[in-house]
Amino acid sequence: MSVNKVILIGNVGQDPEIRYNEGSRPVASFSLATTERAYTNAAGTPIPERTEWHRIVMWDRAAETAEKYIRKGTKLYIEGRLRTRTWEDRNTIKRTVTEIYVDNFDILSRTTMKYFISAGEPSGDLHASQLIRELKKVDGKAEFAFLGGDLMSSEARCEPVIHYRDMAFMGFSEVLRHLPEVLSNLKRAKAALKASRPDALVLVDYPSFNLKLAEYAVSLGIPVYYYISPKVWAWKEHRVKAIKRYVRKVFCIFPFEVAFYRDRHDYAVDYVGNPSKEEVEIKLRSIASREEFLKRHNLPDRPIIAIVPGSRRSEIKNNLMIMETAAARFPDYQPVIAAAPGIDLKYYGYYITPGTPIVRDATFELMHFAEAALVTSGTATLECALLDTPQVVCYRANGVKLSYKIMEKILKVPFVSLPNLIADKAIVPEMLVHLCTPDAVARELGNILPGRPGHDNQLEGYRLMRAILGDTLAAPTTARLLYSDLTDK
Length: 489
What we know:
Layout: E1 2-12, E2 17-20, E3 26-36, E4 39-40, E5 46-47, E6 50-59, H1 60-69, E7 75-88, E8 94-107, E9 114-119, H2 122-138, E10 143-148, H3 150-156, E11 162-163, H4 172-177, H5 179-196, E12 200-204, H6 207-219, E13 224-227, H7 239-246, E14 249-252, H8 256-265, E15 270-271, H9 275-285, H10 290-296, E16 304-308, H11 313-327, E17 334-339, H12 345-348, E18 358-360, H13 363-369, E19 372-376, H14 379-386, E20 391-395, H15 401-410, H16 418-423, E21 430-432, H17 438-448, H18 453-469, H19 474-487
Parallel strand pairs: 6-8, 9-10, 9-12, 10-11, 12-13, 13-14, 14-15, 16-17, 16-19, 17-18, 19-20, 20-21
Antiparallel strand pairs: 1-3, 1-7, 2-3, 3-6, 4-5, 7-8
Helix pairs in contact: 2-3, 2-19, 5-6, 6-7, 11-17
């Protein structure tokens, strides 16, 4: 055994493991990451930056302090002794371990906390901007670096490392076509993370990219948090393994996610409230009148059926014609189509009757003023429910029955729409794949129009859903929990 004195400054890699030896002496052990910055030696040779990991051991009162105050990501100053031990295991294989036994240490607190936030799409930009605003309230000296968009930039008062418009590649084929850009984005994000050395990395959904970034952050000793869990309860449940391995805390926005993580994966997460609930309430306070809405979009004063066919070309192609055909069977109502950002209005013309009104940048108002809605599955179904507009959820995909059977096997949940998932019961009808036909959609639509039996039943279901969501405000709650976990306050 050799003994040498060492002095280290670094970040803790995981929460300390506490055990008691035979004499009931507490022992704490954990890993510590130290980084030697790049430099040029006397011979003029550039020496790259490198990170090393050390196994730290604390005894007695130091161990008790570690149990109470030290967490993954904590920055420490350590004085100790380097011990290298060699022994043979039960298979007579020679093993060696090097540990640092701590003599003195200090927890180093920054006067300024730095947060690195990663959001890869428009909805993430919105939710993350709200989180930044709330973090500034609980941490007045907070500094930010981020991947995201203009809303985050406005709150953080700085430009993104990468804008989400350069990251928003969805689906296997699109990612494959843009693989060089995806890999370049990940390389840039890792470099920014390493350069900024934040106190925390906060991920917002977008799991295919963010979980890779989480793995790298952990290798640097940076604690990782997830605000808005990936939909692992619906598909790609295997991602939970990575979440458990790399993420210190998950802040969920759906109540059922707590039971999913706890019961299926023995992992505790926090439900912080649903941001859509607050966003809808805020928008309703400043919404224009129905008369102004009709005038602005040159619409006749007739009852409206809102058609919300999705935000991707494939969704519009598969769903819009069926939705419009079903809505047209109710001549007392005016079908109006919600156009998605970035989709040319001419594209909609391929799938609708000429003259059918289309409105852009007004999906929220359209659903609010409609008597009923046909909505492609997604976040819009929750927003529609929070607006108390009865709806039929449509998702045809390729319309092949075999696809429906495959989807049943892949999906881990009994429903696809958020209102039904939250309430854990069928509030809104879901017309999926081969069951999504003009006749079937029209039948369900007719049942939810004013005066029909399904209309009031849906509104009652919405009240149940709203009660389950509760009144907790997601961004303020997450900001408080995050700051408290980092500062142990």
